[in-house]
């Protein structure tokens, strides 16, 4: 078993091989700094704990063995989360008797009484232990809700079900949006669902929607309070920008009658244009995208020229799908040498295209146990996109590091432009140091 | 309410303690979890994770593994890694999931060892206990597995047992080891050979209660004497000004408390009450010492004690609302999860 495989060998093995590997987790998962976001979404980025507190004024009671809540102390340090996490620590007797469940309503009451201001929502976060015990947390939450008179909702930090049909990050979105109550529909309202940090307001999507009369564009990240969040129930439709929010959108469709349209974050300029055209057709409007598209093309052309002689290593711990971004770069004329990411079945169309364009492209699975000894080969100057890639190439003077990971999310043509700017700036920094001619 | 935390965050769990002892020894450490526990350990509790990555893996358990009890799959994964990486050992570290489904980790280790030829052992932590229990279990598992013969060489050097990132300030420990080359911190200094050094040491010092059982075992099997003493805690105590005539409440692990107490009493402190959330050793306990379990325990101790000085992790400060005396920060990573330099 060697580290990394060519994209051609992955595609030759067929789509079914990818599916079985992911579903069965036939290998151990290497825990490296590069895979931390996979192993513990709570440790970095948005995991269940952060996501569960997306509603302003909400608090969370983590009901679990002490180990599950341990790294939350890092999160509690951030001003926006201070005083919002509470813990009901289970012991071994709780595990055997399930008595912790009867304590939850009382614990919620005690926490609410402890606070100077009543929270908007109490999220009850439970973990793998309760997944195995088969706890009916919806029922427990209803009891707690009766006790305190404010909404109490469950969120499931079940790492065991990560590759299941309802993984934790899907369920937490369903739980949050279940709080929306029916409202008079606003014809000019839309919700952008999918990103807890929200879409970067500089994205052209806002201007394009405004131009066709959609003026109330709401995102959970921008809601200042519970009332503002409830305004999301007035949307005429939802735009789902991350597949993890799809079941929540389906729920809202069923429950409140809000239809939804799915879009993806892409970096291939022609595909972004096609996506806007499809959205326009669905809404019965025409988006004027020519100017934004031209700017993105110009930025990409500039990038290709600026980074001639450099090769790219593209990682998955970034605000991009590494396979789609690599495809975008290769199609534009950039030299991509490696992709760090799990080649899952849902990425098959991109993998096939990559295989056709660059069969020798190396794909490294960050979680592969072999990666414990992985060191990239020495070569020419490298542009490392993503925090995982940055880790592998750390300390190398001829590497331009572009973490490309932020709280607000890049989207559309503007996302392409910003990425090209970030890469050019990183290359400038390295060249200024004089280590790359 | 018992178990409810409104101010403090959960303390370091047993599985983190176990991994901290095994981390630097060149083995393959397999945390038998779904991934979250591994992330907690590597991404939070293990300071060497960023600078010295080690072969620490998650078993990647999924719901069907737990429901169907697919132990053979775990054995296959572990054998695969043992044959590929040829680590010095394979260690299975327990978490709540195997505890709930009753996985027999010891039996799995026997299978792994038999099939791969690599020594394998289990540390049966469960995520419900505290770090010191995990450290204690890991030490014993290691010594029982690898220190099977009496060393031939004459006793040499001094072993440190109980030195982990949870109790020791890493910089202070590093400085101590540099200044005292005869000392070797077992589990901190890289390599399995450090274990053998503890078995062949002139003596061992135990700097935290979790090292005591291992010290006793080494004493019973190889006649290595030991003492309970934390020189880093003593150094810290020396730096606290104006303790003469003062009533002090100190909160930490018990060996550190004892070492600091001796210094403060020597310097004229009126009294030193030791309080701990963790393992307690009868040998070090003094009348009036306190066992802490809930947040209220600490609040009550502060309110009732009439102390002039409290030396404790700063995370406890909000619980001492009515305290008007002098607060001395004495960081304890196992409590707060914060790495602070007490000398700053």
From TrEMBL, chain A:
Protein source organism: Pseudoramibacter porci
One Gene Ontology term of the molecular function aspect: oxidoreductase activity
Cross-referenced InterPro entries: Nase/OxRdtase_comp1 (IPR000510), NifE-like (IPR049939)
Identification of the protein by name: Oxidoreductase
Superkingdom, taxonomy of origin: Bacteria
Start and end residues of each Nitrogenase/oxidoreductase component domain: 47-427
TrEMBL record, chain B:
Ranges where the Nitrogenase/oxidoreductase component domain occurs: 17-231
Molecular function terms, GO-annotated: oxidoreductase activity
Coiled coil region boundaries: none
Annotated source species: Pseudoramibacter porci
Protein's name in the database: Nitrogenase molybdenum-iron protein
Source organism, top-level taxon: Bacteria
Pfam families in alphabetical order: Oxidored_nitro
């Amino acid at each position: 078993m060697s580290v990394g495989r060519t994209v051609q060998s992955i595609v030759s093995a067929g789509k079914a091989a990818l599916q079985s590997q992911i579903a069965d987790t036939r290998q151990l998962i290497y825990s490296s700094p590069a895979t931390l976001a996979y192993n513990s979404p709570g440790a970095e980025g948005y995991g269940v704990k952060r996501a569960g507190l997306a509603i302003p004024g909400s608090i969370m009671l983590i009901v679990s063995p002490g180990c599950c809540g341990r790294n939350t102390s890092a999160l509690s340090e951030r001003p926006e989360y201070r005083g919002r996490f509470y813990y009901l620590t289970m012991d071994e007797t709780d595990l055997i008797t399930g008595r912790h469940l009867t304590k939850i309503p009382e614990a919620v009451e005690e926490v609410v009484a402890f606070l100077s201001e009543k929270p908007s929502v109490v999220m009850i976060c439970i973990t793998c232990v309760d997944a195995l015990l088969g706890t009916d947390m919806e029922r427990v939450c209803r009891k707690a809700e009766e006790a305190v008179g404010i909404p109490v909702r469950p969120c499931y930090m079940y790492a065991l079900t990560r590759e299941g049909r309802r993984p934790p990050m899907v369920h937490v979105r369903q739980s949050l949006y279940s709080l929306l109550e029916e409202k008079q529909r606003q014809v000019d309202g839309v919700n952008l669902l999918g990103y807890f940090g929200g879409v970067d307001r500089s994205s052209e999507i806002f201007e394009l929607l405004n131009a066709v009369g959609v003026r109330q564009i709401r995102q959970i990240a921008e809601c200042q309070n519970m009332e503002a969040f409830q305004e999301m129930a007035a949307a005429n439709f939802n735009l789902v920008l991350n597949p993890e929010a799809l079941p929540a959108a389906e729920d809202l469709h069923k429950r409140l009658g809000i239809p939804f349209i799915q879009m993806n974050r892409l970096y291939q300029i022609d595909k972004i244009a096609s996506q806007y055209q499809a959205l326009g057709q669905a809404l019965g409007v025409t988006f004027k995208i020519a100017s934004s598209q031209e700017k993105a093309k110009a930025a990409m052309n500039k990038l290709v020229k600026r980074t001639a002689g450099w090769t790219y290593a593209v990682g998955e711990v970034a605000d991009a799908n590494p396979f789609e971004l690599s495809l975008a770069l290769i199609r534009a004329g950039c030299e991509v040498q490696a992709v760090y990411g799990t080649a899952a079945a849902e990425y098959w169309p991109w993998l096939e295209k990559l295989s056709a364009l660059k069969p020798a492209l190396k794909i490294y699975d960050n979680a592969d146990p072999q990666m414990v000894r992985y060191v990239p080969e020495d070569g020419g100057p490298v542009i490392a996109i993503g925090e995982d890639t940055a880790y592998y190439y750390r300390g190398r003077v001829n590497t331009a590091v572009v973490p490309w990971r932020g709280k607000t999310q890049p989207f559309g043509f503007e996302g392409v432009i910003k990425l090209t700017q970030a890469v050019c700036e990183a290359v400038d920094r390295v060249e200024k140091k004089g280590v790359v001619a | 309410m018992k178990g409810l935390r409104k101010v403090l965050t959960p303390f370091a769990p047993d599985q983190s303690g176990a991994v901290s002892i095994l981390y630097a020894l060149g083995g393959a450490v397999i945390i038998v979890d779904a991934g979250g526990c591994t992330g907690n350990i590597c991404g939070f509790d293990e300071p060497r994770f960023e600078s010295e990555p080690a072969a620490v893996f998650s078993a990647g358990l999924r719901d069907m593994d737990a429901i169907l009890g697919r132990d053979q799959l775990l054995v296959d994964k572990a054998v695969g890694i043992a044959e590929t990486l040829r680590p010095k050992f394979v260690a299975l570290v327990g978490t709540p999931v195997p505890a709930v489904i009753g996985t027999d980790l010891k039996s799995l280790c026997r299978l792994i060892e038999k099939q791969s030829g690599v020594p394998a052992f289990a540390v049966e932590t469960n995520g419900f206990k505290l770090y010191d229990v995990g450290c204690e279990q890991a030490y014993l598992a290691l010594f029982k597995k690898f220190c099977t013969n009496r060393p031939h060489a004459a006793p040499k050097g001094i072993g440190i047992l109980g030195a982990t990132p949870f109790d020791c300030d890493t910089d202070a420990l590093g400085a101590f080891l540099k200044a005292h080359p005869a000392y070797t911190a077992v589990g901190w200094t890289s390599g399995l050979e450090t274990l053998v050094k503890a078995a062949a040491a002139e003596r061992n010092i135990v700097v935290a209660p979790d090292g005591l059982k291992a010290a006793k075992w080494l004493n019973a099997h190889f006649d290595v004497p030991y003492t309970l003493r934390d020189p880093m805690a003593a150094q810290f105590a020396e730096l606290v000004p104006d303790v003469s005539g003062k009533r002090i409440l100190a909160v930490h692990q018990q060996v550190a408390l004892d070492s600091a107490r001796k210094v403060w009493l020597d310097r004229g402190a009126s009294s030193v009450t030791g309080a701990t959330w963790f393992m307690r050793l009868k040998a070090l306990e003094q009348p009036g010492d306190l066992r802490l379990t809930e947040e209220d325990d600490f609040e009550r101790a502060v309110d009732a004690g009439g102390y002039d000085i409290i030396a404790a992790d700063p995370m406890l400060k909000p619980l001492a609302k009515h305290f008007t005396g002098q607060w001395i920060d004495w960081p304890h990573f196992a409590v707060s999860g914060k790495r602070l330099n007490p000398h700053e």
